[in-house]
Amino acid sequence: MTHPCELCERDGGLLVWRSDKLRVIRAVGDAQSTDHPAFYRVVWQAHVAEWTDLAPPDRSHLMQAVAKVETVLRAALQPTKVNLASLGNVVPHLHWHVIARFDWDARWPAPVWAPAAREVTGAAARLAVPLDVLDAQVAGALEGFRPSA
Q1: 20 to 30 A Cα–Cα from 127, which one of 38, 55, 56, 64?
Q2: Is 91 within 8 Å of 5 (Cβ atoms)?
Q3: Is-contact 105 35, C-beta < 8 A?
């Protein structure tokens, strides 16, 4: 019996941008996204579980998208650090987490998946720009983005 694929059935968060090869979502609805509101994922659309399953041009395309998201987060928010991670143990869609981190966030300096070290209320309000503006900036940076030939 095959199980339905969560990332085929749903976007996996708030959809910010989509192309035929990948999509960018902002994580919503869990403790990590509440405590770390500038938490994005760049998700490969097709079922590809491992980095080396992608052809080299697709690897390059995916990492260029990750770099575009990181560039927007750094320019708009001036975070203390940007975390990049590709973990994906459950879903068969290769994806990268792109997370703006701040020295005031609930888990700093530990990973976002660690237990909270402190309570931080209103994390989204502490960002230099509202989330809808940030989403629009991420989408704008990816507008017209196509694989390199």
Answers
A1: 64
A2: yes
A3: yes
